[in-house]
Design goal:
- By secondary structure, this protein is of the alpha/beta class.
- It has nine helices and 15 strands.
- 33% of the residues lie in helices and 30% in strands.
- α4 links the parallel β4 and β5.
- About 7% of the residues have low confidence.
């Protein structure tokens, strides 16, 4: 049996190293490469045609699920999800016989996964596995017909809800209820009327997924929901602020001032 061609995808270098070392102990696997983000993963899956991909779900720019959306299901390799989701959330994968490695994982647990993958490859059940994965994806998002999408199509999709995880609980935040968004490195703070949520995503990437008719980039670190804009106020000097209905004041940068006024036909 030829070694199983394998790709490692994780934004955490330490996790990639751990997977690499364990795979190197098994001569039935051959590592094609490592990817530190979803964009690299899409390219490598399309060009290298791996048989198995160890795929992190939560990555800051393109998530593991978004990687699946951008690869033709007919060309899917076997995916082993590497995730920090808790045991309750992971039940969705178990129902559909999709294997996973829960962070932090033990050597024994990882080797069990490797044996299971080898059995699937030997028995040539990859097609059944891919069908099961598509069923799971459809159940997670029943409003969306699951087909492969181009990069431009994925970028044009507008979010209507986000799943926020905190301390083992998972809460749905509806995008239409977000008043404004504050960005900081790999995270954003979603400010709703009565509560704020921390979400792991770059502001620029989240902006591309939001409905452009409702959300406006106020400056490099903030986006406002125009449906919650109460008034635009000027303070001494050149400072312009968006006063939101909650009373929050969000600074409008000088180069965004004209664009905001243009939306309302003001000069």
């Amino acid at each position: 049996m030829k070694p199983i061609r394998t790709l490692i995808v994780d934004d955490e270098e330490l996790c990639r190293k751990g997977i690499r070392l364990l795979l190197q102990e098994d001569n039935e696997y051959r590592i094609l490469g490592e990817c530190k983000n979803g964009k690299e993963a899409i390219k490598e899956i399309r060009t290298q045609k791996p048989e198995v991909v160890f795929l992190d779900i939560r990555m800051p720019e393109i998530s593991g699920f978004d990687v699946l959306k951008r690869v033709n299901p007919e060309e899917w390799p076997l995916f082993v999800f590497v995730t920090a989701y808790d045991e309750h959330a992971i039940k969705a994968f178990e129902v559909h016989a999709i294997d996973y490695v829960l962070k932090p994982f033990t050597k024994a647990r990882f080797k069990k996964t490797l044996e299971r993958v080898k059995n699937i490859v030997r028995e040539k059940n990859a097609t059944t596995f891919a069908h099961s994965l598509m069923q799971m994806m459809s159940r997670l998002d029943p409003s969306q017909e699951f087909t492969a999408k181009s990069d431009s199509e994925v970028k044009s999709d507008s979010l209507d809800k986000l799943l926020i995880s905190s301390r083992g609980a998972h809460e749905i935040v509806w995008v239409k209820e977000i008043e404004w968004i504050e960005g900081a490195d790999y995270y954003v703070c979603l400010h709703c009327r009565n509560k704020s949520f921390l979400y792991r995503e770059r502001l620029k990437n989240l902006e591309e997924k939001l409905p452009s008719s409702d959300f406006f980039r106020a400056h490099k670190s903030a986006i406002i929901n125009l449906n919650y804009l109460d008034k635009i106020i000027s303070e001494p000097g050149t400072h312009i602020y968006a006063l939101m209905k909650s009373g929050a004041k969000v600074k409008i940068s000088r180069n965004r001032k004209k664009a905001l006024f243009d939306l309302y036909g003001e000069k």
